[in-house]
Task: inverse folding
């Protein structure tokens, strides 16, 4: 027993008693179950396990604080509808927005933020962190932090491009299929059924083995694989709109296909489509990262998070956490986008539960 | 009963047709190569004689349709041709590796399925409480993380910092006993369990909440039935269909999501074989692996559909 362990339990028990006294039921439940879990973990893992829990709780508190401050900031900065919507947003959503903003800044201003170039060799292989290099060097002696920053541009950029491409392709086909119906609709639906019955990673591997690996092929392949999912959703959403009376009226007015899609159907199906874009981005991003991790995606020397994990993976066996940074960067962005999408879906559908 | 049989048969037939179309897709995708397979294998510097010899050996002189029918005929009998790199029979290479992958997937499934369903039901019953919110954030995080991130985190904390489990699952099935096998493959299995449990928990929670919102459950509650009886007698019979669906879909995910996990842990499964063959451009192996993955995926989706039909009287007796 030392001061840390005593202080740790005293703080937890004190906080849960306070929560119980002021009858904040949810906080009490959370704190007290944490105390019980700590008892077990502390007995099994000793003091270091308690330190881990403390650090995790600290990071969590920092995230919550950031999210809370960012929400207040957005409420003040934005105006009208946006401000009102943000005010009721859960903290997870504003945390997601904050992370997305950080990544966007890192990606756009990468050359200014990064202290070194993305393929610049400045030290020995796997050199440890010093005052020049925040996170140390990778297997060729390139600055890991600079590569992480450039990776925000390359990895996210390619995923974003592929998602946009897939989305335009799928949404356009879906809208046309829903509006025209008949033969085109049937044909597209069957094609989509077949593409969707092959797992996406397997399909991507098959196509990559044939076409070779470069960025354009990658974007093209991913667009082909993910367009069907967008097609299905768009067709379903637009299908509900097409049967409305005002579409009938527009048809009787003699409006063309393009006008119907652009002015009547699209404005009435944007909310689910935007949420779908976010979800789709997560899938595409994970696929790009996975393919790069397998050495079949974005090719070196371009800085990319997936291949960075693979290149530095040997460090793991020496107990270094460096390879986890790029992998964590991938996870953090996907989580952030998912949080925001969750909130948007909740808002657009009034979904309960 | 004959009704059910005909519906199931119809569904099976549809699955078979899909598989046939996919086999066409997989075979003719290779035909899209600039030049042909012989050229792709031998590269730019190949002499005309070498090309000719290889074409002869691979039977590329015949029209594509014949080769497809021959390939399909072989595939149905378990003969996928010969590897371009090693010259060994593809079926021989794939066989033990497929068994290894199935072992890993079922190992993960046996752990994941009961935990996920139990946790999903608990979370659904406790919905909107603080536990539900925490579980929501945790499962969302687990789903969003790439498999290799989870894998490396587990290696770092359970194999390197605390040497409890071996980091690499480069196992040889003949040499080690059953207990040792489970011990060595624990970390890859745990990685998949984490991802699959998160998925299944969310899906189970959604379907149970959907069910609990229906009027007849409220009626049962209002007439004073005890809570456990509402769950066991009223909710559960109708919950089977969605739960079976969730399980089958996630098993399908297990079979395909195994690729990244196998690479992280250097596990000698079919996923790693597929990745290696894609890098080496060994087309017969790639085609065979893709066909096997697609067939498994379709089969499990089919099982989900059939399960849903069998457990749902409304689907069993369509109007």
Result:
């Amino acid at each position: 027993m030392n001061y840390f362990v005593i202080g740790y339990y005293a703080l937890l028990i004190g906080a849960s008693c306070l929560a119980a006294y002021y009858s904040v039921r949810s906080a009490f439940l959370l704190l007290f179950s944490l105390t019980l879990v700590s008892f077990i973990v502390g007995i099994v893992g000793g003091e270091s396990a308690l330190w881990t829990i403390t650090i995790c709780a600290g990071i969590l508190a920092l995230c919550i604080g950031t999210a809370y401050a960012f929400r207040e900031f957005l409420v003040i900065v934005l105006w009208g509808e946006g401000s009102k919507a943000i005010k009721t947003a859960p903290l997870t959503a504003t945390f997601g927005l904050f992370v997305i903003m950080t990544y966007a800044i890192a990606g756009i201003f990468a050359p200014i933020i990064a202290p070194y170039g993305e393929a610049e060799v400045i030290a020995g292989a796997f050199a440890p962190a010093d005052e020049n290099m925040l996170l140390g060097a990778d297997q060729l002696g390139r600055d890991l932090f600079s590569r992480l920053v450039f990776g925000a541009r390359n990895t996210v950029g390619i995923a974003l491009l592929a998602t946009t491409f897939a989305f335009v392709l799928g949404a356009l086909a879906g809208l046309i299929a829903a509006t025209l119906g008949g033969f085109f609709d049937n044909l597209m639906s069957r094609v989509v059924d077949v593409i969707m019955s092959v797992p996406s990673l397997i399909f991507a591997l098959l196509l990559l083995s044939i076409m070779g690996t470069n960025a354009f092929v990658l974007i093209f392949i991913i667009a082909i694989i993910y367009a069907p999912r967008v097609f299905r959703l768009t067709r379903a959403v637009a299908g509900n709109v097409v049967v409305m009376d005002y579409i009938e009226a527009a048809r009787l007015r003699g409006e063309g296909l393009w006008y119907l899609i652009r002015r009547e159907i699209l404005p009435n199906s944007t909310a689910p489509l935007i949420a779908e874009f976010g979800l789709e981005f997560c899938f595409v991003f994970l696929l790009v990262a996975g393919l790069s991790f397998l050495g079949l995606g974005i090719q070196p020397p371009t800085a990319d998070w997936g291949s960075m994990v693979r290149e530095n993976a040997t460090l793991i066996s020496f107990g270094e956490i460096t390879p986890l940074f790029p992998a964590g960067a991938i996870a953090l962005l996907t989580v952030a986008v998912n949080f925001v999408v969750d909130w948007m879906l909740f808002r657009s559908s009034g979904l309960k539960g | 009963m004959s009704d059910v049989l005909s519906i199931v048969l119809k569904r099976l037939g549809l699955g078979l047709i899909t598989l046939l179309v996919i086999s066409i897709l997989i075979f003719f995708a290779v035909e899209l190569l600039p030049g042909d397979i012989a050229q792709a294998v031998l590269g730019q510097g190949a002499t005309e004689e070498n090309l000719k010899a290889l074409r002869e050996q691979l039977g590329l002189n015949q029209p594509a349709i014949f080769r497809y029918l021959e390939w399909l005929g072989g595939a149905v009998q378990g003969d996928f041709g010969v590897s371009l790199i090693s010259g060994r029979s593809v079926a021989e290479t794939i066989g033990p590796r497929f068994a290894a992958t199935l072992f890993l997937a079922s190992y993960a499934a046996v752990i994941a399925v009961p935990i996920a369903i139990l946790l999903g039901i608990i979370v659904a019953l406790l919905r909107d409480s603080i536990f539900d919110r925490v579980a929501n954030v945790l499962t969302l995080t687990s789903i969003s993380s790439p498999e290799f991130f989870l894998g490396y985190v587990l290696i770092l904390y359970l194999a390197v910092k605390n040497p409890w489990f071996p980091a690499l699952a480069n196992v040889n099935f003949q040499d080690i006993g059953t207990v040792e096998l489970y011990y060595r493959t624990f970390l890859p299995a745990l990685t998949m369990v984490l991802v699959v449990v998160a998925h299944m928990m969310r899906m189970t929670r959604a379907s149970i909440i959907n069910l609990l919102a229906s009027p007849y459950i409220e009626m049962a509650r209002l007439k004073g039935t005890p809570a456990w009886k509402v769950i066991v007698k009223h909710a559960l019979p109708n919950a089977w269909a969605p739960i079976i669906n969730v399980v089958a879909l996630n098993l399908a995910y297990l079979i395909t999501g195994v690729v990244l996990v196998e690479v992280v842990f250097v596990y000698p499964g079919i996923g790693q074989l597929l990745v290696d063959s894609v890098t080496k451009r060994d087309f017969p192996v790639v085609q065979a692996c893709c066909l096997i993955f697609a067939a498994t995926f379709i089969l499990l989706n089919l099982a989900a559909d059939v399960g849903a039909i069998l457990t749902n009287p409304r689907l069993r007796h369509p109007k």
